[in-house]
Amino acid sequence: MGTKLTISRGEFLKLSATTGAGLVLGLYLPWKNQLAAQADQTFKPNVWVSIDTSGTVTIVMHRSEFGQKVWTSLPMILAEELEADWSRVQVVQGDLNPVYGGQSTGGSASVRTSYDKLRKAGAAAREMLISAAAQTWNVDRGECRAESGAVIHSPTGRKLGYGELVETAATLPIPEEVPLKDPKDFKIIGKSLKSLDGAAKIDGSVIYGLDFKLPGMLTAAVARCPVFGGTVASYDDSKARTVPGVRHIVPISSGVAVVADDTWSALEGRKALKVTWNEGAHARLSSEDISRTLREAAEKDGRSLRVAGDAEAALAQAETKLEVGYEVPYLDHATMEPMNCTAQVDKSSCEIWVPTQNPAAAHNAAQEITGLPDEAIKVHTLRMGGGFGRRLANDYARDAVEVAQAVTGPVKVLRTRDEDIQHGIYRPASYHHLKGGLDRKGNPLAWIHRASGPANAGFMIGPDSATYGIDLPYTIPNIHTSDITSELPVPAGPWRSVANTQLAFANESFIDELAHAARKDPYEFRRAYIKDHPRLLGVLELAAEKAGWGRRLPKGRYQGIAAHGCFRSYAAIVAEVSVDRRGRVTVHKMVCAVDCGIVINPDGVRSQVEGGITLGLTAALHGAITLEKGRVQQSNFHNYKLLTMRESPVIETYIVPSAQPPTGIGEPPVPPTPPAVTNAIYAATGIRIRRLPIDPKELQKG
Amino acid sequence: MAQISFIINGQRKSLDMDPDVRLLWVIRDSLGLTGTKYSCGMSLCGACTVHVDGDPVRSCVTAVSDVDGREVTTIEGLAEQNHPIHQAWIEEEVSQCGYCQPGQIMTAAALLAKNPKPSDKDIDQTMSRALCRCGTYQRIRRAIHRAAGEV
Ligand code: FES
Ligand code: FES
After folding, report:
1. Average pLDDT of chain B?
2. Has the ipTM of the complex gone over 0.95?
């Protein structure tokens, strides 16, 4: 028998502001262990759905929306099993609450980790509504079916809308086992439905973090030491205090905050503030130093990650040997909405409104700073203008809580663009030392890859977040991969697809170099050795087919190919580029094939592929955060360039039909993008780009 | 301090304020219209674009005194006009995070007002100054063509 839900009802009613009677389900999973789990208190509900008496279905978004369109795709999964009328579905943001389970949004994991739970959640609600109808009509429930927001009594054609059934359904036990639909009967999953928030995103009504306002709210801007790790030596706020609207000057751990009535006053106040910095130990650090550190580290032995055969011995025997290095710089996320957070703190409570991918991290920061107990801290997730991994960190929430502690009432701390770029949590720079050998027939014999990166990246390599990571899908008899880390003071963290961006650039460039060294077609060469990874092979072949690999191209255009798997999804890209005499690269077309299992919303997948490729192209053509005298040299979009429409190629997406469980698509298109382009540049010019971003000087003719 | 009057989305506003304040912050902080976005503050991205007497203007670098006696339209105002561009944006499912989109739409609407049937080249030329980090450019292009068919 089922168990009655007890704790979720009040919580949910509060959340969704539903009034009157309604069916409210909090679904505890895993289902089989429901009772046991309840007894030992370790279970966590995953998803909440409510239906009110008007028949409106409200689904709580327990993850963060920042462009991946989970606001639509996750509800689609639940609505499918619920047999909901899609036009009656609405979504509300779930605040940080342990009842939802993990709420961090990253690793392309939202669909993958929510699929089963949301289906079961929807199916349970559906089954209860069917039972409620059968009970109302006093008929056998086997004669009833759910369809598009109503239950129908098949023999008589009688029909009751969900809204009419909720009161009865709410009295029924939650079933322990629920039948799930056969995927061939899906009506919502697999359709390119329009985003539920599509209109709100373009009429100015969506409230992003920066737009959030509370009565009496103050606004603050922080002066920060331009050198990482520097501290405040002293400051003179006499001028700043005279700026109209400035209320307080608050020293915090990241600098000095100027708190004012509004944004303009806070910014003017910060301009008038004079701070002397203790620049600390890193005031001389430059990008050349970082490059040298990473390159030198790559000379040493690191931590072995994959060892097959004896790669060094095999290399010694090889007929053809290659030894090269690849290097990529630090990158900023440069979300269009800069970091910001609003907080209100008093003696007994702390409340935070934050555009975050990771509300739990904001909570932890608040707890650490205020020392308040868990239940005294509330975190509300707000919409954000881009994330790309930057908003997994809590540095900006920390600023807000510290400032809020010092003032009365709510305060928003915002960053200006220069601050946002110069105080990021960057995609780590890395250096990759590659050695490879071919036998007389051009078959690869040995592959040695030593990846060198900063220690604070923490997740440089590893199979958990990556499908391949440093590992490679090519069957080569002797392989040795390893990584080695160096202490560097530049803050580093995840950036859309994490270490895969660096690793795929090295791996997919080097396999291309080996193919050319073997005088083989780079696509056919990959195909021959990728054979043990059918899904990767599948996307490789589909991309090649759709791009017409090897066909006659318009004059001056050349193709390059790359494939990579990460987060259990697979992507292959054929880039079509041309390079002019001055070394300027034009990317004309990117043809991408992806395999991400069952697809919830095909157009959503295409949109993520377009986004991932755009981010990857920006990294290939423009992206670099560089340091001089310990300072980030870039400050705004004139020197940290984003891809523009004019530079943006035609992007075609092809999806491999699949019955495999769904996996994510936010990140997988990013890693193969830069190597597809640089491989095409090699085809065009015979020049191998081993350092990003692409420097046109390397490609200039004569 | 100065007395500054202008019409915004059809409503007359009179404010007594520092004439140097950037229009962006007046719109967002004083008037509470947060559809107009801040992103670069240096006229480099277009997120803050509004129309002043029908022309696209970057409000982050425009002093409020510059719009004294003029007519300002923000994304909220354009949305109320049921401009075909909104429907086109929905049909093409343009937005990802959406943050840049009010600025993209204001820029595109101004383009269409001047050039009702823009070519790809015209679109690229005007829209390349409006940045999107999420990669929505090819959909923006399609949406502009779609709206052009209906303007
Ligand atoms: S915020 Fe005004 S152009 Fe970027
Ligand atoms: S949609 Fe996110 S910045 Fe354009």
Report:
1. 96
2. yes
